[in-house]
Specification:
- With 223 residues, this protein is an alpha/beta fold.
- It folds into two domains: 150 residues, 3-Layer(aba) Sandwich (Alpha/beta knot); 57 residues, Trp Operon Repressor, Chain A (Orthogonal Bundle), CATH 1.10.1270.20.
- 26% of the residues lie in helices and 21% in strands.
- It contains seven helices and eleven strands.
- The strands form four sheets. The protein has a five-stranded parallel β-sheet, covered by helices on one side.
Length: 223
Amino acid sequence: MTFDILTLFPDMFDGPFKQSILHRATLNSLIKINFHDLRNWAVNERGAVDDRPYGGGAGMIMRVEPIFNALETLPKQPKRKVILMDARGQKFTQKKALELTCLDQIVLICGHYEGVDQRVVDHLVDETISIGDYVLTGGEIPAMVIVDSVTRLIPGVLKKPEATLYESFSTVNCKPNSTGNYLEHPQYTRPEEFNGWKVPEVLLTGNHGKIKEWREKDSSEIS
């Protein structure tokens, strides 16, 4: 899968994408991440990519032309989706992350300042996504979240495929009539006792039936 990220601050991605699972997925050619500095498509020699909002208001608005020209420049793969990070967008979920794994190319537009010209939403993107009911300084961190959550679901990225099946927000191991908002059971490892805090006895029995029953009981759903 190819991720194309349109941003004013490409250097923000250096740390997160050069560590751990994402870095390994890149080295193994399971994903490719391209960063595109929107200032390369600035509207003038001063590098302007924003302007004052019509009608007045605080802050500046990202202009439509740099985003349009950047999208026109990018190679297009058969299964491509263009997504704008936007506080007004659809709430990002595990289900959405799984849907996105079916694509060949995901283009993520990172908004900034007071927002993006509405014509980007109306004419240039396939959908808008929000990662939560709060406001950040820009779309870079939400873009990181999407790349991370989608990448780990791509076959071959995690060493144990079952790791993405029996986890929070997965419907595979949910109870009957589940809503899908499933939270995984608590986890423990060695030592068996620390500072007087003990691992539940059932997990030490080796009785897989009892352990499964305990895990199902201690999993939960959220509304």
